[in-house]
Amino acid sequence: MTSGNTGSMSTLSHSAEALNQDCFCKTLNTQRLRDQLENHPDLHGLMENITQSRPNLFSSTVVFISSAVQSQISACIAAIERVATLPDYQTQALARVDSVAQKSTATLGVCMGYDFHLSASGPQLIEINTNAGGLLLNAALAQAQEACCDAWRWTLPANSQREVLEQAVFDMFANEWCLQRGSQKWSTLVIVDDAPQNQYLAPEFELFRQLFARHGIQTHIADPSELHWQQGKLQHQGSVVDMVYNRLTDFYLSEPNHLSIRQAYAADAVVLTPHPRVHALLADKRNLIALSQSDLLQSWGASVADCQLLTQHIPTTHLVSAENAAELWAQRRQLFFKPVAGYGAKATYRGDKLTKKVWGEILNSDFVAQALVQPGARMIQVDGVQTDLKFDLRAFSYAGQVQLLAARIYAGQTTNFRTQGGGFAPVIVVPSTEQR
Asked: Is 153 among the domain residues?
């Protein structure tokens, strides 16, 4: 592993922060990535498509974190999902959302994504996503890395790790089916998104389709307009749909084009995952307000340990209103503003970048204000030039358990996949200082 300032590193005794600043290694083996992505004849050409249409999807390097940070992320996610089961928490979360989210369902919701920034006090949760993209893409990316020296060869995943993770991903969907349908036979699944072929992460839909096909599940990728609610069944091309893997960002299925899915879900005629209820309980940005208030959570029955943990890792968040507008405007340089139903960093604003015009638009919409936490810093080389970029961390999880950690490297205000040298990056966990 070469370092921009210190030459060759013989050990990984350096801190994760130092490695993120000093290690300029390019570890991505593009041929290996091609092999990982195109591991079925139907996937041939996928790598070329990504290279041409999404040149900044994958970074050529990695991001380092300490084992302490890894443990804190896992503990934070588990605590959030414990708190989200409390009756009082659920009552307040469900009272403010579309009625479709009131429907009780046994399923948990696949592909949760918890996004963190790193601060001096540890990882800070900035967002929760119910249909987080990138799980299978990052599984392939992690297997396409090569060590540039023996010092960190042991940190790379074993060749079998991707197979283990992909089996866990399939088991996640199978568990959703069993939770709602028990021992009934599961044979069809449709991956649904608006104009799926135009989505930035469309290549991942193909990876999911092949994963399900290997397990004997007939799988299609479809726009919701291709689904029809007929005779008490959700149908696609004349066949009954057993399960829908939901990648829509209309979280409550309120748009006319999504009516057939909403009707099937309301009638319990399809296993829909993730579903409106899990979005209401976890991913609605207003939940961050309650999750950052220890006294409130304790009054609802949360344990002291969970409250302390969430206070440590969730920045204070407020609902933007006419009553606190003057105070928030005065403090805007220390705040980040997000729409309550936003996704993908759309219409999000750093307070120090706000104009009066945008502030007026925020006041006329539903926004939260979260204490600003700067993203992590990753120094890389692009065309031989040292470039200081940012990164955040995404923890993919199911049932409160982390399945995979990945990073997104970028420049600018938010993640964007437009940064040369940026994109998804594997996370390498190194021992914490106290472990050495």
From this structure: yes
